[in-house]
Amino acid sequence: TGKSLSEIWGGLVARASAGDLTKSEITEALEKSIRRRSPRIPVAFQIVLLKILSSSYDHWPQP
Question: What pTM does this model have?
Fold first, then answer.
């Protein structure tokens, strides 16, 4: 889409605040971030999150 990672993450934060964030959006952003080796979110943590989100993990913690 041509957006910078900071724009992507900012959009995800806004969608999460509105309660509209989807698992696939998080997965897509993490995949892009990993490909770019973004230092903003540690790559190892991104990989762990991606594995959780890409699996059948459906027990999201309650706030």
Answer: 0.59
